[in-house]
């Protein structure tokens, strides 16, 4: 099971030279997608316990369009292991506002984390 969120990255999100966006931007999107996944699986937002790993693989820039995917990797009685991937699907070309849809997405960030649902909200379905 998975969910995918797409979002335009406003130029105002860029805080570093080269129009770069900080890594926390992608982690926030993972939180939104993870919450959506939890609601889909258990009908509850869940509580995020933490990341087991985070890899920053490519820069995200203001003007890009990204998609954040949350995919259920495993399901315990109350814990849910979730794999996340942030992909750049459109890239800004220059300062004129021009952008292009990428033929192949660029994987910017990967992560794995664990969410926990309250005992009364956990479902037993796979």
UniProtKB/TrEMBL annotation:
Gene3D superfamilies: Hotdog Thioesterase. CDD domains: hot_dog (cd03440). InterPro entries: HotDog_dom_sf (IPR029069), Thioestr_dom (IPR006683). It comes from the Bacteria. Residues 27-87 form the Thioesterase domain. This is Hotdog domain-containing protein.
